[in-house]
Structure formats: structure tokens, C-alpha cells
Amino acid sequence: MSPIFRVILIVVSLLTTFYILKKIRQSKLQIEYAIFWILFAGVLIVFSLFPWLVSMFTRLIGMQLPVNFIFMFFIFVLLVKMFLMTIELSALENKVKDLTQELALEEKERADEQKGQKEE
């Protein structure tokens, strides 16, 4: 891994971490999501500081270049994260649908009650 690429990874990781911390302070990011992104940036820093670790994983997998391993690894991690977020989004959409249906039934009952009171 070239020194320039290592420096870029470290700088981007640190900038990402500072940005995440800023969003937490502004209450625009929940802690549970921030932890993932901080760990993500931490792994980038570890890979940048210890390039032999990346080379070892690259050889174990049988890849040619360490940078390809880094890209493949993080694409895989982000795909897993996206899948987990899709599951969470589906659950939230189901909750919204259920609450909307519940609210509609309550409004219908209230309207029926008012209609019944007017007829009396």
C-alpha cells in the first residue's frame, strides 16, 4: 500500500470521526449509528498504520494487491450494513402502516359516535 494512499485513509478517517462527533453534539445522529461509523473509521486507521496486516489478509484470500482487499472488505461491510438497515426500515414501515390503520379505525369510531349522537 503506497504511503500516499495510507495518508489519505488516515486523513479521511479522522475527518469522518470529527464530523460524526459534531453530528452527535448537534443531536442529529444517534449514538448506535455513530458507533458503527467510528469503528469503520478506526479500522481504516488500523489498516493505514499497519499495512503488513492488510498484506497478510490479502495473501490469505489470494488477492494480488492490498488496496483491492481494502476496497473489497469495505464494500462487503457496507453491503452488510445496508442490508441490516433495510431490515430496520422494513420494520419501521410496518409500524407506520399499523399505526396509520389503528388511527383510521379510531377516527371512524369517533365519527360514528358523533353521527349517532347527532341523530338522537
Task: Summarize the topology.
Elements: H1 3-25, H2 31-49, H3 51-61, H4 66-119
3D structure, described in words:
With 120 residues, the protein is an all-alpha fold. Helices cover 89% and strands 0% of the residues. Helix 1 (3-25) packs antiparallel against helix 2 (31-49), helix 2 (31-49) packs across helix 3 (51-61) and helix 3 (51-61) crosses helix 4 (66-119). The protein is elongated and about 85 Å long.
Gap between N and C termini: 84 Å
What's the Cα radius of gyration? 25 Å
Element pattern in H and E: HHHH
The class by helix and strand makeup works out as mainly alpha
The number of helices is 4
Q: Approximately what portion of the residues adopt beta-strand conformation?
A: under 5%
What global shape is seen? elongated
Low-confidence stretches: none
Give structural attributes:
about 0% strand; mainly alpha; elongated; about 120 residues
Question: Quick summary of this structure?
Answer:
With 120 residues, the protein is mainly α. It contains four helices and no strands.
